[in-house]
Amino acid sequence: MSGLTIRGLTVSFDGFVAVDGVDLDVPPGDLRFLIGPNGAGKTTLVDAVTGLVKATGSARFGETELLGREVHRIARLGVGRTFQTATVFEELSVLQNLDIAAGSGRSALGLLRRRRGVPDDVARALETIGLTGRLDDLAGTLAHGQKQWLEIGMLLVQDARLLLLDEPVAGMSHEERDATGELLHQIALERTVVVIEHDMDFLRRYARTVTVLHAGKVLSEGTVAEVQADQRVQEVYLGHSTSTEGAA
Amino acid sequence: MSVLTGLGRPSRLRTGLGFAGGALLLFAVAPAVLDDFRLNLLAKYLCLAMVAVGIGLAWGRGGLLTLGQGVFFGLGGYAMAMHLKLADAGPGQMPDFMQLYGQLDELPWWWKPFENPAFALAATVLLPMAVAFVLGWVVFRRRVRGAYFAILSQALAAAMVIFLVGQQGTTGGTNGLTDIQGFFGYDLADPVNKETVYFVVAACLLVLLAIVRQLMQSRYGELLVAVRDAEERVRFLGYDPAKVKLTAYVVAAGMAGLAGALFVPAVGIISPALIGVVPSIEFVIGVAVGGRATLLGPIAGAVAVAWAKTALSERFPGTWTYLQGALFVVVVAFLPGGLATIFAWLRGRRATPRVSTVVDGPAARPVEEGVPS
Ligand SMILES: Nc1ncnc2c1ncn2[C@@H]1O[C@H](COP(=O)(O)OP(=O)(O)OP(=O)(O)O)[C@@H](O)[C@H]1O
Ligand SMILES: [Mg+2]
Question: Across the interface, do B371 and A149 touch by the CB < 8 Å criterion?
């Protein structure tokens, strides 16, 4: 298992610095929550690590530098992500979505064949995310929460070793949140997981460690209790956590 | 909307029956009921349908608005026509039009390899594919998309026409390469040989159909749809979308090239007017009308539009262009999936919709199991 090591990560958009010299260590197998007010730069940080936006500094996964690589190369190194708004292939079935996610290593010849049956890893992921019964349904017909699970399932079959999840429980019911939290705990046994989340209740229950971003900088870091006790965090964020509770 | 992708998988039996039925129609019924003139027209339409099959893959499944297929059609057509003109002229002779314009003492160097039939035949398919590969590589790597890709394709078609017209001495100019007499030793004036050309065209169309069908139903076909609908997402799964799109684009170009090559013996001419901006758009219109994302829609659309063009422009010269434009607008506005959607819709109404009543999700089972290692 590998961890994520970020040093001096900086992203600017036309002079506006969205991520400002962030240092971040996520050890192997951690379940790290990344929180912060709207516009803190959380998504942008994930964008930088996954190659979507240009950044300076360094972001290493294990020993491998990620910055400067193309998006699909970073993905092949075992870095997977989800998006703030669930993006699945709506016109393909659940099975096809997962099969595509599992297949970036397939040879050209393998791609030209038809899929026969359900591959083992896909079957296991279907079981894990509880969508076995929806196998042949178009992903576009899934409920919002199910789409988010499908995305997580796609990361599993993609065999991502570092999962970067952007607000995975936004819009979910309480039961769905709990199920997702348990699932993330399971996943973090063998993989390194970073979760961006606004939901404080969810955070308290499932976070192992927390990093607070504010205005592009790391404001605080530690266990849930440590971060909650931090005066500065209370000022910028937790202070009005009751009003942002459950905000998506 | 599932009807647009139509990824349902008919059984092998149904597919086999479908192909057998198509073969019966093309090889037995059509020659029996159509006179020589009509059969020859059908050969021409089927050539256009071959272009459409490729567009169905690249545009319908891949989302690449290929508005410049005339270029590849033309490359294939000219490669074939150059060889046939040289063969007509006889060994060591220059084609008639070059002698007529009288500016040249000998064959231009780039005509020479086309004396070889194997080279010419290979070139009809490989040359368009090579051009598409280079163009596609540059364009897709730079993430040129949508309207820009379409405009670029059109510009290429326009540029090719300008080149051909400008180089009259070596390309035949506006007239194109005309008056083709023979096809690999067979006299094209003979109705029996004309019929054989029709059979070759029909056979090639079925082969292309089989290729595209396999591509659409393979994992590649699913990936292509994924790239069409969410290119960025595919990237984050570890694929390079440029390669996925490039494959469809190159395959479609090869098909257009073969179509152009067969068009020449079927019709006896290839000229700039057949491959420029307007014909390129007409290819796409046929596909849109028929149903771009389906297997048979593009063929049906291409044949129907070409047939309507012949029939209507005979009777009402001058109004066809407007009719074609109106047809396109109506289909795009009211049937964005093309006429093929009507069939899918009818079929969908008969089948009962699948509604899941079970609330699924990770909560439905203990989490201790099933996490893959
Ligand atoms: N492509 C872009 N161009 C310009 N500015 C951008 C771009 N992307 C993000 N920003 C800005 O960067 C800042 C950080 O945005 P980011 O999306 O990372 O915030 P976030 O912490 O994910 O917020 P939220 O909780 O609302 O998702 C914001 O001020 C945003 O407006
Ligand atoms: Mg965000």
Answer: no
